[in-house]
Design a protein that fits this description.
The protein is mostly beta strands. The protein is 12% helix and 33% strand. A hairpin with a 6-residue loop joins strand 3 and strand 4.
């Protein structure tokens, strides 16, 4: 997940705090997607397949809005 993680850090979805705390990507057992958890373990975002079936989207779990779209062409 190196490239995906770096891209999400650049877009501000995943953070690395100076005190050592950070958010991280994890596989979801409930749905067929990846989730992003904050340093407390709360799910903040879901990484899902986009409606075109190829690209990925990063959806904020509290608002339900898509924050970032990841094109399949970069992989």
């Amino acid at each position: 997940m190196g490239y995906l993680e770096e891209m999400l850090i650049r877009n501000g979805v995943i953070y690395r705090a100076p005190d050592g705390s950070s958010s991280y990507i994890e596989g979801s057992l409930v749905s067929n997607s990846l989730v992003i958890r904050d340093s407390s373990g709360w799910v903040t975002h879901r990484i899902e397949r986009a409606s075109n079936g190829v690209d990925l989207v990063v959806r904020n779990t509290s608002t339900g809005c898509v924050e970032t779209r990841i094109s399949a062409s970069i992989f």
